[in-house]
Amino acid sequence: xxxxxxxxxxxxVLRKSPLHRVHLAxxxxxxxxxxxxxxGVYRSEITDREAAAHLGLVDLCLQPRSGFKxxxxxxxxxxxxxxxxxxxxxxxxLSEGVLVSxxxxxxxxxxxxxxEASNTARAASQAWSMEDDTRDCYEVPRxxxxxxxxxxxxxxxxxxxxxxxVDLRSQHFENLFVAQTLLNEVSVIVxxxxxxxxxxxxxxxxxxxxEYLWTVLLDAMGxxxxxxxxxxxxxxxxSGSAGLS
Amino acid sequence: xxxxxxxPPFGLQIERNRLVHFxxxxxxxxxxxxDTIASALAANDQWLLSRSFKYHRPRGFLTxxxxxxxxxxxxxxxxxxxxxxxxxxxxxxALPQNFSGTLKRDRxxxxxxxxxxxxxxxYYKAFFRPRGIWQLWxxxxxxxxxxxxxxxxxxxxxFTQTYRHCDVLIVGGGPAGLASSLEAAAAGADVLLVDxxxxxxxxxxxxxxxxxxxxxxxxxxxxxxxxxxxxxxETFTGAVCNGWFADNWVPVIQGKTLIKVRAQKxxxxxxxxxQPAIFRNNDLPGIFLSSAVLRLMHxxxxxxxxxxxxxxxNWEGYRAxxxxxxxxxxxxxxxxxxxxxxxxxxxxxxxxDCGLPIWFDHGVDQAIASNDQNHVVGIDIGALDCGAVDRxxxxxxxxxxxxxxxxxxxxxxxxxxxGGRLTYDDASAVFSIDQLPDNCGLGGxxxxxxxxxxxxxDGVRAAKEALWEKGASGGLESRGLDNERINFPWPIFAHPRxxxxxxxDEDLQIADIVNATRDGYEHIQLVxxxxxxxxGPSQGRHSALTVARLVADATGKSVxxxxxxxxxxxxxxxxLAHTGGRGFFLARRSAMHHRHLELGAVMLQAGAWLRPxxxxxxxxxxxxxxxxxxxxxxxxxxxxxSTLGGIEIRGPDAAEFLNRIYTGGFKKQPVGKARYALLINxxxxxxxxxxxxxxxxxxxxxxxxxxxxxxxxxxMLKWNAQWRLQLDIANVTSAYCAMNIAGPDARAVLSxxxxxxxxxxAAFPYMGVRTGHLGGVPIRLIRVGFVGELGFxxxxxxxxxxxxxxxxxxxxxxxxxxxxxxxxQRGLRLEKGHIIVGQDTDAMSNxxxxxxxxxxxxxxxxxxxxxxxxELEKQPLDRVLVGFEIEDIQQPIPLESHLVLxxxxxxxxxxxxxxxxxxNSIIGLAYVDADYAELGRSLTxxxxxxxxxSAKVVPTPFYDxxxxxxxxxx
Lengths: 245, 970
Fold this sequence. Notes:
The structure holds two protein chains of two kinds.
Chain A: H1 3-10, H2 20-25, E1 29-33, E2 36-41, H3 45-55, E3 56-59, E4 65-69, H4 73-78, E5 90-93, E6 98-104, E7 107-112, H5 120-127, E8 138-140, H6 142-145, E9 146-152, H7 156-161, E10 178-183, E11 186-192, E12 200-206, H8 210-222, E13 227-229, H9 231-238
Parallel strand pairs in A: 3-13
Antiparallel strand pairs in A: 1-2, 3-9, 4-7, 4-8, 5-6, 6-7, 9-12, 10-11, 11-12
Chain B: E1 15-24, E2 27-33, H1 37-43, E3 50-51, E4 58-59, E5 72-75, E6 78-82, E7 92-94, H2 122-128, H3 133-144, E8 160-171, H4 175-186, E9 191-194, H5 216-229, E10 233-236, E11 239-241, E12 249-254, E13 257-268, E14 272-274, E15 287-289, H6 290-300, E16 307-312, H7 316-326, E17 330-336, H8 346-353, E18 358-359, E19 362-369, E20 376-385, E21 388-389, E22 395-398, E23 401-405, E24 408-410, H9 413-417, E25 421-425, E26 430-434, E27 440-442, H10 452-467, E28 501-503, E29 508-509, H11 510-518, H12 524-531, H13 544-555, H14 559-562, H15 576-580, H16 593-598, E30 601-606, E31 609-615, H17 621-634, E32 637-640, E33 645-650, H18 654-661, E34 674-680, E35 686-696, E36 699-704, H19 709-723, E37 728-731, E38 736-742, H20 746-751, E39 769-774, E40 777-782, E41 791-797, H21 801-811, E42 818-819, H22 822-831, H23 866-874, E43 879-886, E44 899-902, E45 905-916, E46 921-929, E47 938-942, E48 948-954
Parallel strand pairs in B: 1-7, 8-9, 8-13, 9-10, 13-27, 15-23, 16-17, 16-23, 17-18, 32-42
Antiparallel strand pairs in B: 1-2, 3-4, 5-6, 11-12, 12-13, 14-24, 19-20, 20-21, 20-22, 25-26, 28-29, 30-31, 32-38, 33-36, 33-37, 34-35, 35-36, 38-41, 39-40, 40-41, 43-46, 43-48, 44-45, 44-47, 45-46, 47-48
């Protein structure tokens, strides 16, 4: 076996989004980070940003996330100084860029949403072990069981209303509300976290259905002039640079 | 051509300066923008639109509102389009339906002469006697069945679905609906107003309310302008509410979109459906409902003819007559079924002022057809004697159109689906609706109000009730001109020669309904099914009341006692594409999916997953599969098994839980070991299997079958909801990719990439479980051998799947590692005699039948299904899953479910079978009656084409019975 092969075999393996090939086929420009290889820009920075402000679909599958459930999960998360949401199907956005969603009375989902986010989700996951299962808290492998997308932009609620039966009108589905529902036969967790005045919905669903969901969402978004956008545009919106906050 | 149109204000919906060219029945026509096919044809003096379903009678249009089957026409991509709904567009090509020869001269119209040989329920009767006769008739009728033609070459169009939530959904954009919407919006409600017509306004657009002081035009404009200006009201026009479902779930179809509306409150302002009078030849083209004539004139500016006769049992006929006179159209007279009112009536005075004759207390004996039978040219009328026409003294009125005004039925269908009760008042001869649920309301004529001011006020009341004042405002007193009676109780005039049509869709006559009751079908629901009344495209909109009246009369009951049939959704015809929506097919993909495609995989669907069946060319399927099998046996292969279910059982009671849920023993299972896990239900039926890996004293990682994992997970949750053991159950199927490296060289390949797990036989024996790393990624490694060779199953976080696959393929390059697919895996496992739950088991299979009683821990005090198995064990086996072999590999290969025979008697069926490249024979598994299960017994299997092949019962495993291959030393 050659030295080059051996060096490959000994190197560290990187994560890949389940949409990796989709992005490549669509001409996305990939960027590598410690999280893996993600799509940075789809068409051009300006076009992506315009699309994101109107209606953009973002692949956030590599974004760190973790989950915990069990009667002791609240106490466990508090040991990481995490402020928990007010109740089930509500979320709280922590100042360090972590979105904490409560999925039931004793189940939580942590999503690091920004590039500058603290590693709270990862830290809570790494600190957990089977050695202390008397605390009744169990880690759920959300990083790999679920993919994560964002539908962002002025038309986001309109588009999702064509796919999700939940009442997404802003007075009924407010900022930091959570819904667990179906999108074209696939179970999804929908978390609303508006970015300034722009509606933004995180969608978490079975990772094996990500390519299907991506196609379904892009198809529906086409009716409202939406498009896939890269991480750069999403972070630009998040940073408030779009002037909409 | 617009010269023939009536001048404005007639023609509300047409653009007089915009011509539209189209064709019908191959002839070119010109209409105006805003015309429907039917109105444009009428403007061109083309009144014949279609032929009736059964007798091929000529038909024009009855309602001009899309409520009758007479106007069904064929469009290029769409049969059974409603000509009185579909707007003409430039170049549109429409064709008539259901005729032989030409529309004007339909050869099949001869059928009408044989009507007496086609009695009610002819189809049902023909099934019975004389015996076998149906086979003769069926050939004839099947050729004639159905309306229209589907263009199978048509490219599917895009249909979509969407959801819409609102505070108040108002169905119907007429005066009540408009007023109701405004009232609800004024209270700040988010209102959705839906109307099936192209424009809002409903009856305000065409009806004659007889109030000169308040012209309907200004009332309409005021209401519509206010609705359009309201930011709280969204309107959908050309949109049909096609049903009502629980919790105010209402499907609305608009064009190619299905809108799934969920409303907190629904107000039905659906108006009323006018009903025809029943007399001989009442179906001739040129005979209209009064509302149709008013629509034709007011909406499209088309005169219905030159000389009209009015037949009526209410004042609507008079109002229509006055409108016709105002339009300059001759009216030959009014035939009023009622006696002359002693107190007189303003409408009588107005009509007489116009010089129109009125025949009170008269009925219609028959309508007279033109020579070509395609249009009405007159009616014979006579005095009524106890409701029947005195045929001894008939008069003929010559006319080229007839207007019928006999009464109305509320458009009750949606309200009835919502739980409303439809009741009939025999005294006033009208229906009313009550008992609606609290989240629904009624407004306008559907609620029994006819005077326009009452209608509007009732719409307002409905909105108030829905929003704040439920039950507070009570009902309204009608402010009609004289509490007018809207329905004539018996507008039915039987004729000795029949052809008085009750149901135009199905060509049912008075005698058909009466005879149905005489045949013993007296209940209205039975009459419907026996006669098919109300089962055509218009769903009884114009026949339900008449049928109820006829049945009531024939059975000696009141109409109230008789009732009407159930109105189920859909309200109007909908296309399958509406329910299909956007065309997507759910497919789950593993992390290695694209790699498989690049490697030339032919994919198959396994549950919701896509999996590689084999790698290679489809035309060389068998060779590819056999090559993959041989390679695994001789070298090393890699298969993606990510679709296998994965369930984490964690907590202090994890071992106890497994001990209860599975048949085997798990409490003493060492950490680092895997055990086979068989799951059965309370009835002892095999549900699933997998391996349970003990990763920690309180942590098991359990695999399940691809198709079974969800039900296994549900079953686990269900049981622990009862047991309340301290643990957590998590379905982590998607969180882990998995691949199995198998073959004599598997260990050598794996050792090149896994450094922190000792892989030798002593350190990592068969059924061992280890955790470690590969390329820095945490992995779980299981020594299992489903394919009967040395093998390792690697489970790792899903998003590393493709990279890990690549790593293993690279590590195995020197060993000539090859991917193998599901088909090869199934063959390899069969050689090893392993069953696949779901393929080799069915809904009756228990562990004894499949010879897996070795997987039962009989000493355990309890496991799910234990008690049943104890009983089953006492009974003789009825069937057994056995291995069989056909030594001559050139014989036809039995397929799954091929029968095992003894003589001509079935004694079992095949569940799995392959031509084994390893054993050079055909091997398989089959259920056989227990008497045939002994080793060496000959079996006969009936294969494709009915051929028989001989097989022999043999022991399993077929391959490597001493399991030496899967425990190979390093």
